[in-house]
Write a structure and sequence with these properties.
Elements (H helix, E strand, L loop, with lengths): L1 H9 L2 H24 L5 H35 L7 H48 L7 H7 L3 H20 L10 H5 L3 H22 L13 H12 L9 H14 L14 H16 L4 H7 L4 H9 L21 H10 L6 E5 L9 E6 L4 E6 L5 H8 L3 E4 L5 H4 L6 H9 L3 E4 H15 L1 E2 L5 E2 L7 H6 L9 E7 L1 H13 L6 E6 L7 H6 L4 E6 L9 H18 L4 H11 L3 H20 L2 H7 L58 H8 L19 E8 L11 H4 L4 E6 L20 H18 L11
Parallel strand pairs: 3-8, 8-9, 9-10, 10-11
Antiparallel strand pairs: 1-2, 2-3, 4-5, 6-7, 11-12
Helix pairs in contact: 2-3, 2-5, 2-6, 3-4, 4-6, 8-9, 10-22, 11-14, 11-28, 12-13, 13-14, 15-18, 18-20, 22-23, 23-26
Length: 772
Amino acid sequence: MAMWVSTLKNLRCCAVITGLSNVVVILIGAILIKLVYPACGHKDILPFVVILLGCCIKIVIMIRTGIAQQATATMILNRPSQSAVLDAVIRHERRIRYKRWLLWTRFLMLTTVLQFLATTYLMLIVAKHVHQRGVSSNCVLGRVSNGTKWQQDILVLFIIMMFYVGMVQCFTGSDILRWRSFYATEDNAWKTHYSEIFDHGIREALCCMGRVKYLNVLEDDEIYSVAQLLGDLVDYRAAGTGHLELLAGLALLQTHSESPKLYEGCLEAPEERIQEAAVFHPFAEAAYTGLLLDIGRNPVLFPCSWLYRQGIWAPWTRNRYPVLKGDNWWRGHAAAFLKYVNLSPEALRQGRVNQAKCEATYFIVVVHHLKSVVIAVRGTETPEDLITDGLCRECILSPEDLDGLINGNYVHPDVRQRVISSIPHYGHSGIAEAARDLFLQIEGNPGNDGLVDVSSNSRGFLSSLLGAGCECDGYGLRIVGHSLGGAIAALLGLRLYRQYPNLHVYAYGSLPCLDPIIADACSEFITSIVYNNEFSARLSVASILRLRAAALMALSQDTADSTITSKLAHKFLFASRYERTRAEEKIHDSHLNSSAMTTGDRNLHGYSSPCRNGITGQDQESSLWQAINMKDDSGGEINRSDSIDDFTNPFCASPDNVNLSGDPVSEFMETVPLSQNRSPGVLPEMFLPGFVIHIVPQKNSFHTPLWRSWRTQEKYWIYKAYTANREDFKDIVVSTSMFLDHLPWRCDYAMQKVLEARSASQSPLYDGSQMV
């Protein structure tokens, strides 16, 4: 008896209402059929009987779904054991239980759809009866509508309840029990629950895209790792915060905040790097040979544009293009790449289009008029690319990954010593794996046993082009990529720099993928271009955690009842030990940089360039504690006298003011997903690789016609490029343009405008009014 009472308490209110409504429909329908039977034939009674059977099946499936849901929740609550084997068995059983519950929810959704269709059909019969003014071919409606008053009332009530049940079930969802009644405030339970949801959701989405092989995999693969990470990011549910509340907090951040002017006081970026970055940007953009590029450029006519670039309109040109691994029959991807960069087919020497997990699409071309060999790495375009993006936990970089910095003869000795003395280093695990695979593709030689030989005596494809006495001897090597492709290009450059000193990597809108020491050490040969507020340059696990905390804090400041969200934000916004160690590292690094580099070199690389209204980079160590004006935990209150605008930039303060005492630090670190390779209490930060250039559009108030539309006004903006501090890109900027700014052609347009403006400013006839 107690078990039944407990189960009833766990029921959702909407599930109770839906079940009772179906019972009422069954009772009223049974009375209605009793009144007309056997006067009316089976044909007239059939629609009502179908509705009654649908309601009965609905109730049965709801009960079975509730039982499966309870079994799933109970299995999730089982704690992992100390035994790895037993833990794997529990995890396997948990996933089977979840699939079983998911199957019952699918049945529940199917019955809902069938009930809705039956209700729609019966409503059409009723509408026809009303339109014919009571003269209907349906015996049930005709007999009851002409009967007594109470019979007519029963018919009206049945129609109302039938319509109500058919409509309300479309909005109640498939959950029968309340997950919170099982999980309460258990962080691990919520993380596991949402990990299962994301795992099955991703696999079903991939199945719909033709990747059926992922659907029935129960082992721990890359998709499971991505799902685990996503589950960790949704653990705010343990504190009672809903998804809509988080979205409301993000909306508040967007409404009340303005983009921080990180460029104020910073030096302008070197023109030479911008010029070369603009020259090689088309290769990074051309690597998108699928529909994605054409959809963005031609939202209406993209099929025609894509078919043209793929060369389908001219199939007789198929034999002119080189054969790439994974290309289609008509060699369309090779044709699309070459058409975009306007090169002959002979220029494309090697490439790959098909890919599995952590395998990048790339193109190698020889550009004789630029005396360069260009490796263009494609960014995110396929589901496999999304998996690579999602594998964003840190991994230890091997000495081979850092070969260009550790063993290169062209690296400053102090920089090399700093890299060696601070080993181990870490990077984005998915990007690092993709870069290793790409290196083997272009520079490794398969041996007789099928393994790849990367010894010094081997001669890979790249060496056959750039080696002494080869076709491209003396040419420069340029590796370019946009978004994910830019990050993979950066890690590939780290490995190739030793062998090819005339190498430079241009990463456009790259993902943060390296630790601060390696990201800074490769500034000589890697350039990252960031356009305005694009989200990708700020996207990491740590930045998402801080954004989530900021959204919850903004919500707590803007609502009356904010205890739960405030405590959660308090836990996530408290400074970690990582912030303290970063402050100490920066002080140590400043001495190394000042002794190892000349004044001109420091100005070039931005090590001592003033940013943020004259505050130097060494003083920009972010602190999360000063953003919150709180009382002691014993008071349990938060001072909300400050406006929401005072909260919009909570990540800038001096490390000297960080409150380093208190138990919330351990609470904070418990919520952060840590890799086994990192020590406890350290929150890993990912940074943009190399020398960072930030291109910022600024409105020209003197030359912008007010009557023009917003899109037209963009043509009158002034674009400027600044030497940026990579620390400024640790936090995501919530703005309306954060996703649009990531489009590759926006960066290309901005670089062209920067060069035009600088060229105009150097003209003898320049009077200050031509920067448009």
